[in-house]
# Entry
Amino acid sequence: ALPKVYVTRRIPPDGLDILRKSGQVQFELWDSDDPVPRVELLNKVKGCDGILCVLTEKIDAQLLDVAGPNLKVLSTMSVGYDHLSLEELKKRGIRVGYTPEVLTDAVAELTVALLLATSRRLIEATHEAKTGGWGTWRTMWLCGHELANSTVGILGLGRIGVAIAERLKPFKVKKFIYTDVEPRTELANMINAEYVSLDELAKQSDFLAICCALTPETHGICNWNLFSKMKKNAIFINTSRGGVVNQEDLYEALSTGLIAGAGLDVTTPEPLPTHHPLYTLKNCVILPHIASASYTTRNAMSALAANNLLAGLRGEAMPKELKL
Ligand code: GLV
Ligand code: GLV
# Structure
């Protein structure tokens, strides 16, 4: 019999085609745009050889126990892996595929768009124009902060951070600085970025882009301690994971003018409830986790996730395997 696979979401067509045409797996699909209910998920993974999931599915000990000993491969259609209990996967010898690189351009592009939308107050401005606030041309009205001559800080320098810096450089950024658990010399040299401490990153950055993975070490790393060291004109941009930010502290920092603005593509929880206080702030731009959402990239992610899964089931090296 063919290996049994559960696909936890209606993934983009490229990935589905690869699975269908492979003739290599017998797969069942949660054919919906909304997440599969947990109870249904637990029911469906029983006895599976492989699972292809997205970032809304929590892959933990309970799920892996229910899935049982046949499970060999877990393939996630995401670069982030904070929804996976890596320790539990490792313990059971389950191999993990993910989707780095194919989304770097799309995420970097969106990060720049969000940064400019926040620093130049675009959302506020269109709202003013539409709702009668545009009384006349005013000398200081809707003034924001320029990238030209600025210092851009990157928290967590990986492929995405480098791609963001490459795109920002033509805006005449003066200096790139970054912090990470250790210097990333090779990547840093590509963008001429200087390695600094987290403290210095907070103190010097006019724009601070969060580009790290969410791990126990980065959980809540953007908190009052960090915001209180930042410049009054600083713009904070997060396209990584909501969990790296202490949102109460961010709210305080934004509402008291401690920093100038924040652009968030990720929040805790997701979706962020419509009554959340962050929505009431004019200097906070919130997007519904769309950084990788281009047609090209989402298709590429689904194709890579499908190929990771198939390679893993054949016992071969995956195109992109997460080291556990
Ligand atoms: C998106 O957030 C991803 O992890 O791919
Ligand atoms: C702006 O529109 C200017 O003419 O300075």
